[in-house]
Amino acid sequence: MTASPLPRVGALAIGVIAAATLPLWVGDFYQLHLAALIGVYWVLIAGLNLVVGYTGQLSIGHVGLLSIGSYTFAIVVGRYGVDPLLTLALAGALGGLCGFLLGLPSLRLPGFYFAMATMAFALIMAELSLAQGELTGGGAGLPVPAFNAPFDTPPGFYWLVLLVAGLITWMTWNVARLMWGRGLIALRDSEVAAAAVGVPVFRLKLTVFTFSGVTAGIGGALFASLQSYITPDTFIFELGLFFFVCIIIGGRGSILGPFVGTVVLTALPEMVAPLAKLGNFFYGLLLLAVVLVVPEGIGHLIKTVIARFQKKQPDSQGVQPDIGRLVTAIQRGHAS
Questions:
Q1: Which pLDDT tens digit goes with each residue over 59-92?
Q2: Which residues contact 197 (CB under 8 A, 6 or more apart)?
Q3: Are 119 and 237 in contact (CB under 8 A)?
Q4: C-alpha angle 135-239-250 in degrees, rounded to nearest 5
Q5: What is the pLDDT of residues 21-61, one digit of tens each?
Q6: DSSP string of 181-228?
Q7: In angstroms, rounded to a whole number, what is the distance separating the alpha carbons of residues 75 and 225?
Q8: Are the C-beta atoms of residues 264 and 251 closer than 8 Å to each other?
Q9: Which of 12, 19, 11 is nearest to 162 (CA)?
């Protein structure tokens, strides 16, 4: 017998209601800004999780795709007056195209070299944004317009981010739980074994990486609007490492774990605000503690704690042998 899904559905419903009503009971706009930032990061990390957590590809350069979405939104909306929601979709499409073009040659490389290729891509995008000053504003950067009403206020923007994040979470959850997810995990554990059972290794890698480019482009557009002003310094390489670490700390191979990692690492600077100079120290300490104590990640730890408090049902019922029929069958065997 399997455990009843009702507690899980109830917890999910409470979480959705709490997130949807957050602007009504949150303390101030800064906390709402922090919640929106978590949602924006999660839009990117949800797609990156399929690449890193499920497929096992070490991509550390998604900040380059994030910058593409951000500059696309700032230029297209700010200079040409295109509708922001339409530009949001355009940023996602451009991010997906760049992800496809980046993945086409680099996904054929083994793990370490693929990580270096993505890092090089992020550095190239930073240099391009500096060199193309007429388009990107160079080192001075660009102002970024807000979304139109009703998304031009902090609560309205938060609900837009929540809607987009919920949609992408639903998409990644469906990918992870169906045959695609099994194929990705098989690929992560052993490419040779996955190819032997018919998993299209390169096509699967490229599809997932392109999808992560779409989410990075959309996340970049939302990120730019939230920041209201972007420069090349906004997209530092450490931000790409931050996305990667959120998945590692949260736990690979699940949706809940990386989300918890995103929440914890985004909120951590606020929790240690009096010790702001030691921010990187706490990041490193948390990463070291997770790797040593719970290498499967925070998400796995939460699942283990919940499982201990749930009433376990017996997995199977005992089967009593029919001694009489067994003796009769043995006797017939000797007689023949």
A1: 888 899 999 999 999 999 988 889 999 999 999 9
A2: 186
A3: yes
A4: 145
A5: 888 888 778 888 899 999 999 999 999 998 988 888 888 88
A6: HHHHHHHHH-HHHHHHTT--HHHHHHHHHHHHHHHHHHHHHHHHHHHS
A7: 12
A8: no
A9: 19
